[in-house]
Write a structure and sequence with these properties.
This protein is an alpha/beta fold. It folds into four domains: 1-58, Alpha-Beta Plaits (2-Layer Sandwich), CATH 3.30.70; 59-319, no CATH class; 348-417, 3-methyladenine DNA Glycosylase II, Chain A, domain 3 (Orthogonal Bundle), CATH 1.10.15; 419-506, PAS domain (Beta-Lactamase, 2-Layer Sandwich). 42% of the residues lie in helices and 15% in strands.
Amino acid sequence: MRVIDFKDAKCRHCYKCVRHCAVKAISVRDEQARIMVDHCINCGRCLEVCPQNAKTFASDLDRVKGYLEQGFRTVISIAPSYAGVLEFDRPGQVVDALQKLGFAEVRETAEGAAMVTNEYKKLVWENKMPNIITTCCPSMNDLVEKYYPDCAKLMAPVVSPMVAHGRYIKKIYGSDVKVVFLGPCIAKKQEAIGDERVFGAIDAILTFEELALWLRDAGIDLRSCEDMPMGNPDPKINRLYPVSGGVIQSVITEEDADQYHKVFVDGLENCMEMLECLQRGELDHCFIEANVCEGGCAKGPASAHWNTSYVKTKVKIENVVSYKAARDLPDMSTEELAKDFGDHSLSDPMPSEEQIQRILKSTGKYSQEDQLNCGACGYSTCREKAIAVFQGKAELSMCMPYALTQAESMSNVVMDVTPNMVFVIGSDMKILDCNKRGQELLGVGREEAVQRYIFEFIEAEDIENALLTRENVLHKKVRLENGKITAEETIVYIENLDAVLVIFQDVTREEKIKEQHYNLKVETVEMAQKVIEKQMMVAQEIAGLLGETTAETKVTLTKLRDSILNEED
């Protein structure tokens, strides 16, 4: 299932999530980051570091509200880290607030931790395992099974406190009861819903963030609530589970200290280093409390918004803990609390050396010196990134030095080949930059140009006004080089530089063509006028001639008629 995901519209090519993902469970396709579900251990690091808030977490809040609205008997199991995360005066106020939301009963997950502690103690007393790795942290469990499968045999074959508690609640209330876990961990959702080995123990997951929003919407103030008792006996020292080293304090007593060396490791990189030590056989007979989150569960990814100080959270939790072993443990057998761990390793295709070199060369890395290994893409070396490209996890464009070189190269090409004269002028009228055509206009090279002022070369009144008013000048006709060049002037104010971009587009040829066209039109009109006048004169002459000849014809015909008539007489 997909616990964490990305919003396409928000991802902005920063690759920060890739850089901070120690297991590289994030792929980039079409310039968009994606979670690779089978690779992900749901540590939530990408949620914490994303500057664009582009990550989303699959919420069960609506499902929980649905249980309550439909009248299901719903019991909430609250992680002991609540004591350091939520703001209240007395712990019982949290119980009252949750009951006001509709939960039938509120029980502490530390009750399940007490059961797990008992199972861990049995393993210590049996003294059969060369090393024991605790299995309370689901992200740690995924890390071992997926990336260090050789160490799976060292994992304590015991469920997490959450699962133990869920199974116990369903045992005492019946399988129809709905169990909701409330805590600071997002990996718990994958464990509860996505792991078939423990499926059914927990019906939904709520984070402390979601609870805070729910309480706010319901108008419930924790400090205004009554002090109500938890539904479980005091789990005593097992409330220390969310604090780094808390599991060891709960499990390893003085009589156990001689059998196993106590080791607690938190933080993903530290956990990976510890597992590598185990693979090399450098550790022996250690009881290892391992937690992917730095500082333990108290600093889970769904709690950091309330307490940025781990020390403060740790102190608050320790202040409510009784450092005594829990008594009257729930009646749960070893079989009911058992979980087998194994090899769930991944098999990504690996490129040949020739394929790696081909990918490296495609980003301008032809020699070892070209491989800067800057890590901007998210991978520690260029070689690792090339392998990721082959596996479809990364794209060539993720290489920042290569992308920058390409961008600069294209930018320089555009600036050099454009026929326009381009300048960047500072607020003091000093030339900050200019292209080749600009240098030709000024008659000096770039090195000399950037040391001088624009008004030394051309009339700069428009530039000065644009700097003062911060208003752009668009497509204004100006004369350069004492009128030899007609240019179209565009001035754009650059706010972050307090400078202007000045572009002179040489339109001298176009203007000459326009002038020629205009002159041709004038000549044509003049010629047409002359033709018209000449035609009028000709018409008048023709009319005059026609008039004379017509009169003569009339006289002649009249005489002819009269002559004919007289002959008849």
